[in-house]
Amino acid sequence: MPGWRAERMERRATAGSSAVKMNKAKTPTTTVADIARPVAEGPRGFAFTTEFWERFVERHWEKTPLLIKQPFAAQLLSASELFAALAQASEQYRAEGRQLRPPYDRGAKLRFCIEHSVLMTDVEKRLPEAGDESLESYARRIEPLLAGREFELIINQLQSYSFEMWARLREFLRGLYERVGIPAENADAAIFIRNQKRTGFGLHKDKAGVFMFVLKGRKRMLLWPYETFSAKEEIVSTLDYGEFLDRALVLEGQPGDVIYWPSTYWHIGESDGDLSASVSVGLRLNYAPFADVIKHVTHMVERQLGASGRADLYRFEPARLQQTAAELPPRLDAAIRAVREAGCDQSLEQTLKLGWLNRVTGYGFASVPAPRPPRTLADDEIVCGQPEYPVVCVPLNEDRWACSANGHSFTTPTTHHLPLLIDSLNTGIPRRAGSLLAEFATTTETGDRELLRHVLEKLHSLRAVELITSKEPARSS
Ligand SMILES: [Fe+2]
């Protein structure tokens, strides 16, 4: 493994740098931007050094923006990976449309905007198709359909369509998480593709610290501290911010650069109108954890009540209004009882525990790449776990254990051999599947061996266990 190269950070006190430019409409009086030039390494080339993150947390995290110049040897997504993720997200959107879900209610979290308006009809026709083959040829196909109007395609949770991208972000965020923790709401990698000159929803602020990875074209972020617009509600979602340009910090990123801004900063992106693409990794903060509890209680109550959980009309007697008001409608009363029961149900805590396991192994991303298709493992195949990203395994209740890897969890009947198997995999030492199972399964119980084999195959499907195809000898016992 190559050695780490110490990063260099520079403080520039004027707008003279080619990387830091001010908006042309007005000349700012002053600006100060920190620019970092770290070199990332790690197995995927996206890990920063301890020194970088320590300095970052001290100077920038939730404090001030930062432009990080060309830290990686490769882009977060190659051109072909980017297009594959876009095509997959678009296909999911089309599939959900076939289930009669309107544009604003589809899990793909995809928005197509034309001149700052969200398109509500025939969105599918404007999305990438597998036949486009590249981002550029997709843009060439749809531009005539828009008759010269600017567009912007926004897809949230893009990480769920590319395991490699999610794994690179996991490597990137690891050092930061170690110091500040994982976001209480979630992490979300949203892609913005546009020839529109400014962010679709105008000047705004998110409840998220953001790392923006520029993939294509130039992105110029105009940033203002929270205080600039406090008590100026009219500024939200506006494009009319000209009078504040002289107070903006402007960071311009080229492909390969990363721009960070804290959750407190107001911002808008500008570009020159050429096709551009960037991924904004938002770490969503300032969250109400009870929302997670309520979400699960809602599912439990819906399951318990079924059709009787719905109501069309309640009895209403104008002539006996006192009596009508004095008694709760039976279905509302039933709903209250169901919520009470769900709140006391042990399975609520267990569901939240499983969610927490997934949050931990998913590195804060609520939506993670799907598992690969399950596959039978032969006894002589060599398997290997990942010590840096271990499988976690905890008792769920008296009867079951819960395992989680790469943001997915599953449960198994309790057996004391399971944690031993997981510990062995987590060492990262390659082993033949047969000898591993023989070592940890009891010889007297066939079911135990089958259970552990099932766990091993499940972990392979979750990409927590990889097959070693080299001819190098693996430990056989
Ligand atoms: Fe934003």
SSE layout and pairings?
Elements: E1 8-12, E2 33-37, H1 50-59, E3 66-68, H2 79-97, E4 110-114, E5 117-118, H3 135-142, E6 151-155, H4 163-180, E7 186-194, E8 208-216, E9 219-224, E10 249-253, E11 258-261, E12 266-270, E13 276-284, H5 290-305, H6 321-326, H7 330-344, H8 346-361, E14 382-384, E15 392-395, E16 400-405, E17 408-413, H9 417-426, E18 431-432, H10 433-440, H11 446-461, E19 466-468
Helix pairs in contact: 1-4, 5-7, 10-11
Describe the structure.
The chain is of the alpha+beta class and 477 residues long. The protein has 3 domains: 6-79 and 151-284, Cupin (Jelly Rolls), CATH 2.60.120; 290-344, no CATH class; 358-468, Outer Surface Protein A, domain 3, CATH 3.90.930. It is 30% helix and 20% strand. It is built from 11 helices and 19 strands. The protein has helices at residues 50-59, 79-97, 135-142, 163-180, 290-305, 321-326, 330-344, 346-361, 417-426, 433-440, 446-461, and strands at 8-12, 33-37, 66-68, 110-114, 117-118, 151-155, 186-194, 208-216, 219-224, 249-253, 258-261, 266-270, 276-284, 382-384, 392-395, 400-405, 408-413, 431-432, 466-468. The strands form 4 sheets. The protein has a 10-stranded mixed beta sheet with strand order 1-2-3-11-8-13-7-6-4-5, covered by helices on one side. A hairpin with a 2-residue loop joins strand 4 (110-114) and strand 5. Helix 1 packs across helix 4 (163-180). The two termini are 28 Å apart. Residues 204, 206, 267 line the site of fe (ii) ion (FE2).
